[in-house]
Amino acid sequence: MANVMNMKKFSERAGLSAHTLRYYEKIGLLNNVQRNISGHRDYTSRDLDWINFVIRLKDTGMPLSNILEYAKLRALGSDTVKERQKLLEQHRECLKSHIELQQNHLAALEDKIGLYELNKVS
To answer: What is the dihedral of CA 59, 63, 66, 68, to 10 degrees?
Structure first.
């Protein structure tokens, strides 16, 4: 098996604690983790790619329930591609709206800071 990682190395590479990884496995977000003869988890680069995608979804504000739904569909195989695409497209629209809102907030802050820099506001 190529590029196998133990829990410590996988945790470091993923940037997540061992506790979080075990939790993700428990709730079904990280499935089919292989175990070695001693019963310790052996993660692969494919597991790392998946968990990095999960982290990206979380970082962009996708609710855990939606990530779990995506993971369940993924586990069902290629017949669910359209459903997974739809979930990602819906998230993309939410993310675009959130970015627009944050850009508006940033513009308002920049305006306020500009007023302070000109000493026009007390």
So the answer is: 80
| Count of domains observed in the chain | 2
pLDDT in tens, 73-113: 999 999 999 999 999 999 999 999 999 999 999 999 999 99
Measured between its terminal Cα atoms, the distance across the chain in Å is 66
Q: Are residues 69 and 92 in the same domain?
A: yes
Tokens of 24: 């993700």
Query: Same domain, yes or no, for 42 and 1?
Result: yes
Q: Are residues 39 and 94 in the same domain?
A: no
* CA atoms 57, 78, 10, 21: torsion sign: positive
CATH number of the domain that 21 lies in? 1.10.1660.10
Res 65: pLDDT:
95
**Rounded to two decimals, what is the model's pTM?**
0.84
Please say whether the beta carbons of 95 and 60 come within 8 A: yes
Torsion of CA 95, 52, 35, 1, to 10 degrees: 130
What is the 8-class DSSP label of residue 78? G
